Amino acid sequence: xxxxxxxxxxxxxxxxxxxxxxxxxxxxxxxxxxxxxxxxxxxxxxxxxxxxxxxxxxxxxxxxxxxxxxxxxxxxxxxxxxxxxxxxxxxxxxxxxxxxxxxxxxxxxxxxxxxxxxxxxxxxxxxxxxxxxxxxxxxxxxxxxxxxxxxxxxxxxxxxxxxxxxxxxxxxxxxxxxxxxxxxxxxxxxxxxxxxxxxxxxxxxxxxxxxxxxxxxxxxxxxxxxxxxxxxxxxxxxxxxxxxxxxxxxxxxxxxxxxxxxxxxxxxxxxxxxxxxxxxxxxxxxxxxxxxxxxxxxxxxxxxxxxxxxxxxxxxxxxxxxxxxxxxxxxxxxxxxxxxxxxxxxxxxxxxxxxxxxxxxxxxxxxxxxxxxxxxxxxxxxxxxxxxxxxxxxxxxxxxxxxxxxxxxxxxxxxxxxxxxxxxxxxxxxxxxxxxxxxxxxxxxxxxxxxxxxxxxxxxxxxxxx
Length: 466
Ligand code: PXG
Fold this sequence. Notes:
By secondary structure, the protein is of the alpha/beta class. It folds into 2 domains: 11-71 and 351-462, Aspartate Aminotransferase, domain 1 (Alpha-Beta Complex), CATH 3.90.1150; 77-349, Type I PLP-dependent aspartate aminotransferase-like (Major domain) (Aspartate Aminotransferase, domain 2). Helices cover 42% and strands 15% of the residues. The protein has helices at 11-24, 32-38, 64-67, 76-88, 101-113, 127-144, 165-170, 174-177, 195-198, 204-222, 248-259, 280-284, 311-320, 334-349, 352-369, 407-417, 439-462, and strands at residues 43-47, 50-53, 58-60, 118-124, 152-156, 187-190, 227-232, 262-266, 290-293, 305-310, 377-383, 386-391, 423-425, 428-431. The strands form 3 sheets. A 7-stranded mixed β-sheet has the order 4-10-9-8-7-5-6, with helices on both faces. A 4-stranded antiparallel β-sheet has the order 11-12-14-13, with helices on one face. Strand 13 (423-425) and strand 14 form a beta hairpin. Helix 6 (127-144) crosses helix 13. It binds 3-[O-phosphonopyridoxyl]--amino-benzoic acid. 3-[O-phosphonopyridoxyl]--amino-benzoic acid (PXG) is lined by residues 66, 126-128, 131, 160-162, 167, 233, 237-238, 266, 268-269, 294, 305.
C-alpha cells in the first residue's frame, strides 16, 4: 500500500506542516480546536483514482475529491491546457465589451450539451457563486415581468446549495442557518424526498408524489403570486445521496408549470455526467429554467462555476433588461475556461459518460447492492456513480444507532485507515468515485468497504453498542 517514497514527506516534515496548519489555517466546515489536536492528514499527490498522503499511504478516492475530480488525478492534458492559456492570456475581464476565446468557446460547448431550450451561460467561480447569481437573476426576471412581488424561493430541508449568504439560505442545513442569522429574507423550505427517512410506510412511487405535493402546499401557504422559484438538486449530494423516487421530479415539474414558477436545477454535483447523462435534469426529464454548475465542469483542476440560463429567463434579461448589475472579476476566466474545454474534450473522447451509464453504473449497483447483506446495513441505493448505504442498529426494524455514538464517523475512520475514502452524513455512508474507475477497481472498492463495515461492527460490539 505504499506510494513511491519520493512523494512522501519525512515524519519531521509531516509534523512541521501539521504544526503550521494548526497555527495558521482555518479549514472549511471544521472544528478548529479538535483538528489541531489530532493534526490534518496531509495529501501530497494524486494519480488516477488514488490519493497519497505525506506518510506514503495510498487511498482509493471514493469521493472524487469533493464530488469533482471526475476524470481522475494526474491528467497532464489539463495542466497543459492551463499552462498554454496562462502564457497566451492569463486574464482579461469580460465586463467592458470584451471577450476571450475560451470563455466564448466554453459557453457554446456547454450550450450544446445542455437541454435545447437552455442556450446561455453566465460564469461564476464556484457553486455558491452560481447560486447567488441565480437568486439575483430570478428576482430580476420577475421584476422585468412586472411581478416584483414574486420574491420567494422555495428550497428543501437537507438540500445543499453552497456556503455564501444566499447559497446557505437556499440550502436546508439548519446547522448553517444557526450561524449568522440565516436564511436571508424570502427563502423558505419544504421537506426532502427521503423515502427511507420520511415515507417508508408507503411505496416509493406513492411517496414521491406526496413529497412533491409538499411544494404545492408551500406555494399555497406563501401565496402563489409571491413565489418566484423552486430549487433542488436532482439527487441531494451533501445531504447524504438522497435519491428521490422516480415519480418525484415529474410531479415537481407539473406543479412548477401549474403556478408558472421557475425551476432551478442545482447540478453542481449531478452536472457533467455523474448520473449517467450530461445533466441530472435530462435523467429525470425535467425542463429547468436555470441550472447551477461547478465542480465537474473542470474536474476540480481549477475553480469554475456558472449558470445555464433557459430561454424564457434569457430572453427577458436580454430583451427587456438593459444592464444586469452583477458579475465577478473572474467571470469567464480564460484559464479556467480553457481547462473546462479540455476536460469536456476528455469526457467526450474517452466516452466517459457513456461508459459510466452503460458499464460502471450497473456494475456499481450490483456490487454495492450486495453490501445490503451486511448485518450493519439497512439499505443501499445507487444511481449513476453515486451510492449510499444506511448503518442501523437493527436492520430489520430499521432502528437507528444513538446519534451520540457517531457511528458514521467510526466507519469513516476505518475506511480512511484502510485505504478508501467514504463520506459519512449522519448514519449514511456515501461514495461518488471518479468516472475512470474500472469494474475491477469497483470490486476492490466494495471489498474494502465491506472490510471496513466488518471493522466498524467489531468496534461497536467490543463497546457493547450492538
Ligand atoms: N450546490 C451543490 C449541489 C453542491 O453540492 C454547492 C452548490 C456549492 O459549491 P461550492 O463550489 O461553492 O462549494 C455544492 C458544494 C460535502 C460537500 O460534504 C459538498 C459540497 C461542498 C462541500 C462539501 O459533501 N458541495
